[in-house]
Write a structure and sequence with these properties.
Elements: E1 38-39, H1 40-47, H2 51-60, E2 65-67, E3 73-75, H3 79-92, H4 97-120
Antiparallel strand pairs: 1-3, 2-3
Protein name: MerR family transcriptional regulator
Pfam family, one: MerR_2
Organism: Streptomyces fagopyri
């Protein structure tokens, strides 16, 4: 039994399997560490200190900051920790902020000397409870 071809059927193609969709994947480099620098508002927010007080600490030299071309302050990621230390010292000692700069410098120097002593006496002293 032969059947007559359908009209329009001779030129008809069977549907080919659909091609899989093309995915455009963009790989971005993720920073694993903290940002390289923090703005004034970020430092003030993280340390819980008003931005004007942070500016005063910069003027007194209690915390390091750099200025960009437009005059904005930029801080190292460790700045909130340094500001918290200054606030703790201010609460514990009856000193003004200008005097705290000297106290912070002396405490940093003591810490450096203790570290050097630990390195030089590594293994030679058993009792280092005084350090």
């Amino acid at each position: 039994m032969t059947s007559a071809p359908r009209p329009g059927g001779a030129g008809r193609r069977t549907a080919a399997p659909a091609a899989p969709p093309v995915l455009n994947v963009r790989v971005r480099a993720a920073t694993l560490g903290p940002p390289l620098r923090l703005g004034l508002d970020a430092v003030a927010l993280r340390s819980g200190i008003h931005p004007d007080l942070v500016r005063r600490f910069v003027a007194l030299g209690l915390v390091d900051a750099t200025r960009d071309a437009s005059g904005r302050l930029w801080f190292e990621p460790s700045a909130p920790v340094a500001l918290a230390r200054i606030q703790r010292l201010r609460a514990a000692l009856p000193l003004n902020y200008a005097s705290l700069g000297l106290v912070v410098d002396l405490l940093d120097r003591i810490s450096e000397l203790e570290d050097a002593l630990r390195r030089s006496n590594a293994g030679s002293r058993r009792d280092e409870s005084w350090i």
